Amino acid sequence: MDLAKRTEPFRPLAFYWQVAVKPHLMPTAAIVLLMLIGAVVDALAIGFTVPLTDVLTDRGAMGEGRVVALVRGSLQSLGIQPSANMVVFAFLVLVSGFFIIRSALALLNQYWIAAIAVKLRRTTKVALAEKVLHARYEAISSQARGTILHDINNPAQSLTGSVIYLGQFFTGMFNSLLMIGLLLYLSWWATLLLGIVAVAGVQGWRWFADRRSAIHGQTLYDLQGELQKLQVDAIDGLKVVKAHGLERRLVARQDELMSRELQPELHLTFFRHGPMLVNEVIAIAIVVGFGAITFFSPAAGLRVSMLVAFLLAIRRLAPAMASINAATVNLSRYTRDLARIQDILQVLPQERRGGRALEQIKDIRMQDVTFAYAARPDHRVLDRVTAAMPRGTVTAIVGSTGSGKSTIANLLIGLYEPQAGSILVNSVDLQALDLHAWRARVGYVSQDIFVFNATIKDNIALWDESLSQDQIEWAARTAQLHEFIASLPEGYETVVGDRGVRLSGGQCQRLAIARAILRRPEVLIFDEATSALDNLTERAVYDAINALHHEAIVIVIAHRLSTVREANQIIVLQGGRVIEVGTHDLLVGRRGVYAKLYEEKIPQPVSPGAAEIEVAG
User: Fold this and answer.
1) Global confidence as pTM
2) 27-47 pLDDT per residue, tens
3) Structural domains of the chain sorted by starting position, each given as residue range(s) with its CATH number in brackets
4) What are phi and psi of 350, to 5 degrees?
């Protein structure tokens, strides 16, 4: 998706604060508090193993130490004789209780993190979809559908994963800090040695893995986008795929893309799990070294109970440090996806949303409108076009392919903005109007009919439950579609399939016409909207539409000139310029471009007074 360039580099911490933390400040604070309490309880559980081990290995230690004295005093206050076995049992209960509390807090913590992550996935997908749907049409119309779907779905899923890994990162960090504090309490010099080795290992791995993880994450993001685009194209173009025998090529292309995912995935797996091995080796080496000091150098001051506590603390510290490394690798992998979210939410150009409201629409005027598409900025599709379209009239626009007919329709519904000149509604610039409110008052049928994979009723009413069945049937009758619908077993509840596969081209056009006229809009725009209809059906449709023009502005972009004979005015375009304006009889009498088209293309009349004239495009 084409986006403007960011003016500042992507900052992950600022992004997390704005998107994940700030909207969920209280739950996040509660999660952090749970992490801290869990880490403290874990440290206490391991710390209590020191006096427990002292009592188990030396019953003479029953009278030593503040913790032992505290336990003995607590037993006495409860009326329990503090015998040696009872003190040992009390320590076992305390340590077991600490471990159970820590596990319960960890479970609750993970539950809350997952709840925030899932909620973020939903809100982010909705926000991304909203931004894409409200984006300027030219910003997304040139992009493949698979790319757009990938940009909406995958980054939101990555945000969910990154929040979970962020929780693992902070959990590991708090646990590591508390374990290091406990180790410092037991022996500062041993902890200092441990810290130097551990920090060197962690930083060395981060230096080795972080940048590589980001690169492989970018590669995977691009490959997954290509894969989704290919899959969407294969499904959308299934008829072409089968007609040209492309099945094997597309399957082979998909297999090739997926095979290219193998190496990045394997590298990321190695970077993610490699720290576990590194930390295990460091931990074992340190424990063996401290064991040798304990048994062979008593003067160093390390007791067996301290060695046991060191062993347990290191066993906790190693996975905590590994989780920090693994989380860092995964967060680096997701950097591209998160930057994409920021791009869409903050950089993707949005439609202008004016605040002006309108009462009854009286007229539309184009004043010196000039327009060129972004792909060819030097080629003017419209060049200083001026036209007036009053209420209660039918205006027909004719011209050859590339003359700018459909571009006028696109400008009138606000899909594009002219580079020069103005489109005025009741003398108010269209860009100053609320576009959503304006489009709600416009009925539009395009050349490329789109039918939703839903019921006929929903395709006509567009899920507006305020509309009655009688209104829907009136629109279908006007579009010459009701009799066909009534002949179906399920009637208006018939599901038409993806892109209306169960309907013919003419039926899809009539459905789109019914959709456009249903709300009796004040502006009706038909962009070659009856090209797939037979002559009699087309005549009946236009007769019904002409009956509506007294209360609306009707604009017809003509495919067959027989449909514009009765228009109040005909605008003839050539090379993006208005070269003739008038009624059918007037233009034929002038012997200009319109008359030439009429004379060259006229076939035998279908019925008295009606001729079918086709213009290329």
Assistant:
1) 0.70
2) 888 888 888 898 888 888 888
3) 12-23+113-347 (1.20.1560.10), 354-441+523-532+552-617 (3.40.50.300), 448-520 (3.40.50.300)
4) -105, 160
